[in-house]
Specification:
The structure is a homodimer.
Chain A lengths: L2 H27 L2 H7 L4 H7 L3 H26 L3 H10 L5 H7 L2 H10 L6 H23 L4 H25 L2 H22 L6
Chain A binds a DNA duplex (18 and 18 nucleotides) through helix 1 and helix 3.
DNA sequence: GTCTATAAATTGATAGAC
DNA sequence: GTCTATCAATTTATAGAC
């Protein structure tokens, strides 16, 4: 193995460990010593790959964004019908229901924590981009149906807000049932609203 | 002034200061030294009123609950029609739009932070109760209309989730417009769903 | 590039005078 | 009840050997 490869591997391992710990504990509760231990890297070595704790957090967010884009691409590949793509978005939390009940949404909870920093901070902007990725993609799907640009943005905002709010509630109340029931209600409400404006459904 | 009064006043002042700081910075980012300074109380004195930082946080949550109950009572007093009460719930964030865009929902963001603790922790349970207060009250209003018990719980969950999700999005994206537009869409969607099941509207 | 040791700063909590 | 001084632990970050 080339040295450069091993180095990248360690860096990637740090990001992996940090992603997991930030999800379960949040940024503030997570120490670099914990990340280093989980990644099996000495503490001092962390600073070789990331200048500060903040830089590591930025890498974690970038990794989340990358995963999201891959996920969206996979759904687009799997379903030609934008309605089915949106359906996947709504029901995706069910695939990790236990984690969401215990730790919340990996993206939503991180955004909530990071948004409370000064607006100019790099981490605050990164958090904004992360949720924005959801809204943008959802809006694209509505756009591919019969919705105008403004209506698509509004519907996408409604949808992402409903999903995020549901995960927050399910997390705070520690209720897997609530998560399942409410996501399915969102799924139904979105189909209702699309039925009205998309006759193709009966074509 | 009796000593007991002055003592209670200082305690109350600490809770007030902590409430404000927890809203703007979250629990982890807020130090007891900051709270003490904002309340104009020496640091060491804080521990006379609250045994630990956690105890202070519990007092803050209890204060939030109390405020919520007062708010709900005021709305119930002002409007005999449950529909109008729910309308107040949905649009209430607009009265503090600037704060929500900058710091998020005072209750939602606190719940998100505290829910990530071990489930058994007193603070985690307190956070759950806080959001539960919203859902319970909303469910009562639906119940007072023509909704059955299960449907009322479901509608209340949808509503609170939509409101919370909207505030999260508006906070993360720092958009006051998004907050206003989406809350009004929630208002409309709830009226639509109630129209269908509450003929009294046309009586 | 890797790792140990440690500096520097922060912060929750306590001791003890008044 | 009130307040100063300080402890003890934690944690970000760096120095410097290898």
């Amino acid at each position: 193995m080339p040295v450069a490869y091993a180095a990248s591997e360690k860096r990637a391992e740090l990001v992996r460990a940090a992603t997991e710990l930030l999800y379960r504990q949040g940024l503030q509760h997570t120490t670099l010593a914990e990340v280093a231990e989980a990644a099996q890297v000495p503490l001092g070595n962390v600073y070789y790959y990331f200048k500060t704790k903040e830089a590591l957090a930025e890498a974690v967010i970038a990794s989340h964004e990358q995963s999201l884009r891959l996920q969206f691409a996979a759904w687009a590949e799997a379903h030609g019908d934008p309605r089915k793509r949106l359906r996947r978005l709504v029901l995706a939390p069910l695939d990790m229901a236990d984690g969401i009940v215990e730790y919340g949404c990996p993206h939503g909870s991180l955004c909530q924590e990071l948004a409370k920093l000064v607006p100019g901070a790099p981490l605050a902007k990164a958090a904004s981009r992360l949720l924005g990725t959801y809204v943008d993609w959802a809006a694209e799907q509505f756009r591919a149906l019969e919705c105008g640009p403004r209506e698509s943005r509004a519907l996408a905002g409604d949808l992402v807000a409903a999903i995020q709010g549901t995960m927050l509630l399910a997390h705070a109340m520690r209720s897997k049932d609530l998560l399942g029931h409410q996501l399915r209600r969102i799924e139904r409400s979105i189909e209702d609203s699309l039925v009205r404006r998309s006759p193709r459904r009966h074509a």
